[in-house]
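Readers of this paper often ask what the protein records in our data store actually look like. Such a record has a labelled line for the sequence and another for the backbone structure tokens. The tokens are whole numbers drawn from a learned vocabulary of local backbone shapes. We quote a single record here, exactly as it is kept in our systems:
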Amino acid sequence: MSEFVTVARPYAKAAFDFAVEHNSVERWQDMLAFVAEVTKNEEMAELLSGALAPETLSDV
């Protein structure tokens, strides 16, 4: 888990800096909340993680 945090931190900072510079922090917050909600769905989480075999993607 700590490795994920280490890798994700610069991307999170860049996204936050971008949002601040473009006065869109609230919009980014909404988008991130949406993604968090979508990934609560087990099928969507598997799809987004690439855990599904290509032949099953057409079934989703």
In short: The chain has a mean pLDDT of 84.
